[in-house]
Amino acid sequence: MYENEIRQLIQQLAWTDDVTYYHSLRVACLLAKFTEMPAGQKFLKQAWVTQSECITAGLLHEIGKVSWPRDYLFSSDRLAQMDDETLTKFWTLKIQHPLLSERMILELYAKSGNRFWERIARGVAAHHESFDGSGYPYGLTGTEIPLLGRGLRVFDTYVAMSEYRRYRSHFEHERVLKEMGYSLGCRFDAYWGREILAFLESIYIENGQPCGNLDQWLEEFLAG
Ligand SMILES: [Fe+2]
Ligand SMILES: [Fe+2]
Predict the structure, then answer these.
(1) 20: Cβ contacts below 8 Å, ≥ 6 apart
(2) Measured in angstroms, how far is the CA atom of residue 130 from the centroid of ligand 2?
(3) How much distance in Å is there from the Cα of 48 to the middle of ligand 1?
(4) Neighbours of 197 (CB within 10 A)
(5) 23 C-alpha to center of ligand 2: Å?
(6) For residue 156, which ligand has an atom nearest its CA?
(7) CATH number, domain containing residue 194
(8) How far does the centroid of ligand 2 lie from the alpha carbon of residue 86, in Å?
């Protein structure tokens, strides 16, 4: 595995924006738990990715945000106060961030030639695509979306809805799962969305931190 490369990128994210850093760690940690289960192993097989590729995709899906101008990083709570120009710039950055992440990861592919990075990059680029075509950046539909991206979409949404943000409170575990259930077959792949929601329902989640100390979890993953 590429311990140094992953560490360098994720540290950069921690320094830039620690909310997004812990968000990414939560997504990755849940992917790690999922891919230990039979359903998760079937997911890896069908997505043609290894477990470490899948977890690394979780870690790096938001990495493109390190290149955002600082003012925009924490601006979701100030949308109402923004002028039109700033708002347009913010949404442009938001829509482009999966592509920024993809580009950074593809640079590592270009350096090493290892398809480890290419497979991760394709999944990461698609983490905001929706099954029904209503997502971004390309509005891909159904199986046009790499399966890794479809899986990331579900985990990412679960984690985002469960987290506190400065501009809103978090939602309880049961409520998140219920709301997400309505999006099966539209935002989420019907089959894998259901499998992942069933997995999330089954695991014990305390305070939104099923992996305990996330920094420690990261060290163990990188060392493994
Ligand atoms: Fe994202
Ligand atoms: Fe995310």
Answers:
(1) 13, 62, 65, 73
(2) 14
(3) 22
(4) 20
(5) 7
(6) 2
(7) 1.10.3210.10
(8) 22
Q: Whole-prediction pTM value?
A: 0.94
Q: How many domains does the chain have?
A: 1
**Tens digit of pLDDT per residue, the chain (224 long)?**
799 999 999 999 999 999 999 999 999 999 999 999 999 999 999 999 999 999 999 999 999 999 988 877 776 667 777 888 888 988 999 999 999 999 999 999 999 999 999 999 999 999 999 999 999 999 999 999 999 999 999 999 999 998 877 667 778 888 999 999 999 999 999 999 999 999 999 886 655 567 789 999 999 999 98
CA of 54 to the centre of ligand 2 (A): 14
Domain residues for the domain of 143 are: 3-223
Q: For residues 87 and 91, give the distance between their C-alpha atoms in angstroms, rounded to a whole number.
A: 6
Contact 109, 45 (CB under 8 A): no
- Scan for tokens 């995709």, then name that residue: 57
Taking the CA of 158 as reference, the closest ligand is: 2
